[in-house]
């Protein structure tokens, strides 16, 4: 299974590469990889397993973070409604592409972090608040899914990894917490 030792850290060249699209039909290898990426996220969100395996919590993971320059991401966004325990998003996306986005922007109030970055980089990472992503799922079906707010931020962080972009590339170096009035701050 995937653990922190499999995740490359900033400075590794693959994190700055553009990842390659995967071919269809998906190979067993690419299907298995997607499943293992989701399993990592599930383990990382399980307090007992995360402790046992010394995993940092994660809601998303991109194949380049495993030194695999392929356009594959996994996202596991837990529900925050105890009435509905089902995850908001639990998906492996092959060749994801942001096909449209809102003018309105948003950012996480706590800023962003990254499993490939072993340091805090303070500042707002301002991104479109709503996006539409076209992708292929593990069954080989073409999908189009809309994301907003927290989920949209997570998806964009992961798609950035496929294009060699790190979250801190977006932070305003002059004033990391500069905010235009219409930017939605997500707590
Ligand atoms: C926001 C958050 N980021 C966590 N980590 N960073 C990541 O996921 C990186 C990707 C995220 C960083 C900002 C946007 C995308 C990984 N990245 O580098 C992949 O490219 C968390 F772990 C986390 N949560 C909230 C939900 N909680 C449920 C219970 O388990 C703990 C978990 C903690 N929220
Ligand atoms: Ni990351």
From TrEMBL:
Binding locations of Fe cation: 114, 157, 161
One GO BP: translation
InterPro entries from the UniProt entry: Peptide_deformylase (IPR023635), Peptide_deformylase_sf (IPR036821)
Keywords from the UniProt entry: Hydrolase, Iron, Metal-binding, Protein biosynthesis
Catalytic reactions on record: N-terminal N-formyl-L-methionyl-[peptide] + H2O = N-terminal L-methionyl-[peptide] + formate
Xref: Gene3D superfamilies: Peptide deformylase (3.90.45.10)
UniProt-listed Enzyme Commission number(s): 3.5.1.88
GO molecular function: metal ion binding; peptide deformylase activity
Top EC class, one word: hydrolase
Active site (record annotation): 158
Cofactor entry: Fe(2+)
Pfam families reported in the protein's UniProt record: Pep_deformylase
Cofactor details (free text): Binds 1 Fe(2+) ion.
SUPFAM superfamilies reported for this sequence: Peptide deformylase (SSF56420)
Top-rank taxon, per record: Bacteria
UniProt family annotation: Belongs to the polypeptide deformylase family.
HAMAP family, sorted: Pep_deformylase (MF_00163)
Function statement: Removes the formyl group from the N-terminal Met of newly synthesized proteins. Requires at least a dipeptide for an efficient rate of reaction. N-terminal L-methionine is a prerequisite for activity but the enzyme has broad specificity at other positions.
Name under which the protein is recorded: Peptide deformylase
Organism per entry: Enterococcus aquimarinus
Gene transcribed to yield this protein: def
